[in-house]
Amino acid sequence: MVATVALALLGVTAVLVVHRLVRGPHALDRIVAVEILVTTVVAGAAVAVAVWDYTSAVLVLLVLALLGFIGSVTAARLAEEREDMR
Amino acid sequence: MNGLVQTALEAATAVLLLCGAVFCLLGGVGLVRFPDTVTRLQAAAKAQNLGLLLILIGAALRVPLPYAGLLLLIAVFQLITVPVLGQIVGRIAYRTGAVERHTLTVDELAERLAPPDAPDAGESGGGRGRGT
């Protein structure tokens, strides 16, 4: 029950974030949206870890959180160099 | 007694997971509704990560101790990396013109970025803030 409600809320969050990812309008908006999407995935997997004792996913979450950060920073620096990237 | 502790932990986990999911949803709503990049960054960097932290703490209460440590490590990484990303994206948004400056009430960075011989720029301005 708790898992269903929490995952449903996170699913709605993901839909809203994808809406912003598609709409833009600036590249930085999309970069922020991707970062939030990764955060939402980590949150959803953490719910699965808590409810179904799916502990083997914990290391995946650790890697995903760090890779999301590195990717977002790299993309943001690219958007700074190429100001026409919109 | 042990069963009571177990029940209390499960109840705490349920409350934390639901609160975290609600905060994540609020972050998503803010990301869609707010008018420009910097305000969206606000929703992203605060509401969303509070939600993630609550969910991670809730999960850490349920799993065995080593995994709980790893979940808290994820939370610490998140607390370190999100301000860095917010700083970088905010600065790039300002410098590439994604921020509409006439909507800002206070714009301290403009004084720092102004050339030193401009009439309203203090001596403390020039140089700072131009770095990478």
UniProtKB/TrEMBL annotation, chain A:
Database matches in Pfam families: MrpF_PhaF
Main location: membrane
Residue ranges that the Swiss-Prot or TrEMBL entry lists as coiled coil: none
Keyword Transcription tagged: no
Keyword Transmembrane helix set for record: yes
Cell location: Cell membrane
Family (UniProt): Belongs to the CPA3 antiporters (TC 2.A.63) subunit F family.
Protein name per UniProt: Multicomponent Na+:H+ antiporter subunit F
Species of provenance: Streptomyces radiopugnans
Lineage: Bacteria, Bacillati, Actinomycetota, Actinomycetes, Kitasatosporales
UniProtKB/TrEMBL annotation, chain B:
A molecular-function term among this protein's GO annotations: sodium:proton antiporter activity
UniProt entry keywords in alphabetical sequence: Membrane, Transmembrane, Transmembrane helix
Superkingdom in the source lineage: Bacteria
Signal peptide bounds: none
Transmembrane portions of the chain: 12-32
Pfam families referenced in this protein's UniProt entry, alphabetically: PhaG_MnhG_YufB (PF03334)
PANTHER family for the chain: ANTIPORTER SUBUNIT MNHG2-RELATED
Family: Belongs to the CPA3 antiporters (TC 2.A.63) subunit G family.
Name of the molecule in the record: Multicomponent Na+:H+ antiporter subunit G
Organism: Streptomyces radiopugnans
